[in-house]
Design brief:
TM_pro_TauE-like; single chain; globular; 1% strand; two-stranded antiparallel sheet
């Protein structure tokens, strides 16, 4: 097992990501990926694999967080199950193929893509941009195509599933609470398919590395998942005390700065 100082770092990281997820209803990939990449580098893992390991491990952690989120939103009847089930096949295909293809992409390319995507999210939150509603009906074919796009991007960033899904559903005239709840349901197949893709694609590459299942580093996954599940409860309790818009913008800027730091390590 890793030394105790790494376990403590994973615990702190999980607590931060979980608290912010509970506070804002956002996934923790924007925080997890760059910080995990830095921690894995400090642990002496290969620079060629640290970003892939950070993405795969973050997606694995999303399985736990999205399950809790689905339960909360389903209890309030805020999930459009027809839309979620219509997008799910495309999401699974897009996330699995993108995660598998990531094996052939070097860490620098993925770091650049991640940073640019975080810049887009930050800009959207700072200007509070919302897409103009569409008058076109929601069809199964459009849901499938949207699912492929959302799943693919999410597998390459471990973030953005909620951002893209909410933007798409708002574009399709869904109210914001229902869009958020449905995006939570969409996050589960993204996490499952992305985790499977990174696990399978990295199996032979990390076979000699201890405690890894493909590009999933199990000690980090277990500790972060437990810590985030506990901290999310307290984040949710604090969610009404501070302005949500201010918190989201702060988180977006912090995530962008962390992404730039990660990019600087590989360029």
């Amino acid at each position: 097992m890793p030394d105790i100082e790494w376990i403590v770092l994973y615990m702190a990281l999980g607590a931060i990501a979980g608290f912010m997820a509970g506070l804002l209803g956002l996934g923790g990939g924007g925080i997890l990926v760059p910080l995990l990449a830095s921690i894995f580098t400090m642990q002496g893992m290969s620079a060629d694999n640290v970003v892939h390991l950070a993405l795969g491990t973050s997606l694995a952690c999303m399985i736990i967080s999205s399950t809790a989120s689905i339960r909360a939103h389903a209890f309030r009847g805020a999930i459009m199950w027809r839309v979620a089930s219509g997008m799910a096949p495309g999401i699974v295909i897009g996330a699995f193929l993108a995660a598998h293809a990531a094996t052939n992409l070097n860490s620098t390319f993925i770091a650049v893509f991640f940073t640019l995507f975080m810049a887009l999210i930050t800009l959207q939150m700072l200007v509070d941009w919302q897409p103009k509603p569409s008058k076109q009906p929601v069809t199964l074919r459009r849901l499938l195509a949207a699912g492929v796009g959302i799943g693919s991007v999410s597998a390459l960033t471990a973030v953005g599933g909620g951002f893209l899904a909410i933007a798409y559903l708002s574009y399709k005239n869904s109210d914001i609470k229902t869009a958020i709840g449905t995006s939570a349901a969409i996050g589960f197949p993204i996490a499952i398919a992305g985790t499977a893709g990174y696990m399978i694609s990295g199996w032979s590459i990390t076979l000699s590395n201890p405690y890894t299942l493909g590009f999933i580093y199990m000690p980090a996954f277990l500790v972060i998942s437990i810590a985030s599940a506990i901290a999310a409860h307290y984040g949710a309790r604090c969610s009404h005390r501070l302005p949500e818009v201010f918190l989201k913008k702060t988180l977006a800027v912090i995530s962008l700065l962390l992404s730039i730091k990660m990019l600087a390590s590989f360029v």
